[in-house]
């Protein structure tokens, strides 16, 4: 894996300090302004759907499949019990500021998607600062390559692929989708796409960052720390390959259809709005769920608050998008 380096004691101490100082993370996006905790990245705190026990009883779970020889390259698979016929495949990439997070925190959400008739591959990947960019993108591409050869064993149909993620995972997913559909990016990265653009049916992008030239302006807490760790620099804007990470610069008409969402109180929401506008300008079909002007106060990763009306409504719109795109003729 490219650009790997050991984690220094100084960085470990800094990471530990941030995590301990912000034990109340995060994805409690349904909290009020007065209740909200400092939004740093750690293990996700969110609310599964009230019927998660019933959902889990209908879903097969296969844990910790190694999809590549690189560090932390494991995936969990979820698919409906007794499913008949090929299932569209969803590759999901967790968030965590490129330095934290785990596939385990996305299991309930992955099972919820799978229960609607999908094979969901929920992946882990090596984290910064031990693994630098472009390591996670390479690993996600390797996960697609693995699924190309193995998904059928679990009922998956690799002619109907979706990639998705949240926060940092949405950035990786968006770049992965661009890699499959934009030959110029693949050439620049010197990375062969794992699948053809014809296999891609859509991208699911929750509260991500897509423009490295403007992301600092978002004011998202600790954004410079996360991106400095990921790029191995003292100032991420100086990183020589930073343009590769700006998905907004790699949008073409061949980019897959997109479902994109962010809360109105998420500092990264303008990043999603700008990407949606850029995609539409290139003729890409975009379904967006934004809340501008609603004063709902939906924070970063509100999509995982599945005990709330807004979380549930976005889930239903996500499932509608998946159904429409997976049934479409290509």
Strand content: 15-25%
Distance between the termini: 35 Å
Rg computed from alpha carbons, rounded to a whole number of angstroms: 18 Å
Q: What is the helix tally?
A: 9
Assigned CATH class? Alpha Beta
Mean of residue pLDDT?
A: 90
The total tally of domains equals 1
Q: Give the second-level CATH assignment, the architecture.
A: 3-Layer(aba) Sandwich
Main β-sheet description: 8 strands, mixed
Give the ordered list of helices and strands. HHEEEHEHEHHEHEHEH
Largest beta sheet: what is the strand line-up?
1-2-4-3-5-6-7-8
Task: State the CATH superfamily name.
Answer: Alpha/Beta hydrolase fold, catalytic domain
Task: Return the structural class.
Answer: alpha/beta
Could you say what the CATH topology is called? Rossmann fold
Uncertain residue segments = 6-44
For the secondary structure, the number of strands is 8
Proportion of residues in helical segments: 25-40%
């Amino acid at each position: 894996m490219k650009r790997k380096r050991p984690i220094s004691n100084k960085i470990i101490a800094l990471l530990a300090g941030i995590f301990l100082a912000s034990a109340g993370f995060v994805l409690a996006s349904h909290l009020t302004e007065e209740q909200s905790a400092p939004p740093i990245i750690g293990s996700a705190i969110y609310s599964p759907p009230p019927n998660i026990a019933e959902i889990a009883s209908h879903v097969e779970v296969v844990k910790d499949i190694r999809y590549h020889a690189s560090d932390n390259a494991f995936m969990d698979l979820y698919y409906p019990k007794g499913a008949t016929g090929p299932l569209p495949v969803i590759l999901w990439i967790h968030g965590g500021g490129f330095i934290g997070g785990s596939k385990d925190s996305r299991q309930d959400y992955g099972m919820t998607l799978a229960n609607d008739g999908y094979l969901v591959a929920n992946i882990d990947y090596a984290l910064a600062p031990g693994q630098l960019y472009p390591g996670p993108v390479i690993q996600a591409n390797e996960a697609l390559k693995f699924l190309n050869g193995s998904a059928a064993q679990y009922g998956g149909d690799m002619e109907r692929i979706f990639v998705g993620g949240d926060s940092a995972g949405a950035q990786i997913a968006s770049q992965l989708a661009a890699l499959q559909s934009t030959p110029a990016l693949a050439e620049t990265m010197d990375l062969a796409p794992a699948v053809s653009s014809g296999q891609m049916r859509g991208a699911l992008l929750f509260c991500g960052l897509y423009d490295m030239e403007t992301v600092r302006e978002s004011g998202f807490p600790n954004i410079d720390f996360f991106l400095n760790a990921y790029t191995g620099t003292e100032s991420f804007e100086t990183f020589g390959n930073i343009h590769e990470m700006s998905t907004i610069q790699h949008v073409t008409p061949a980019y897959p259809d997109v479902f994109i969402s962010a809360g109105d109180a998420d500092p990264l929401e303008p990043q999603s709005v700008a990407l949606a506008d850029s995609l539409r300008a290139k003729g890409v079909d975009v379904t967006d769920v934004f809340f501008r002007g609603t004063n709902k106060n939906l924070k970063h990763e509100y999509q995982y608050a599945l005990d709330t009306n807004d979380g549930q409504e976005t889930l239903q719109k996500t499932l509608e998008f998946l159904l429409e795109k997976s049934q479409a003729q290509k």
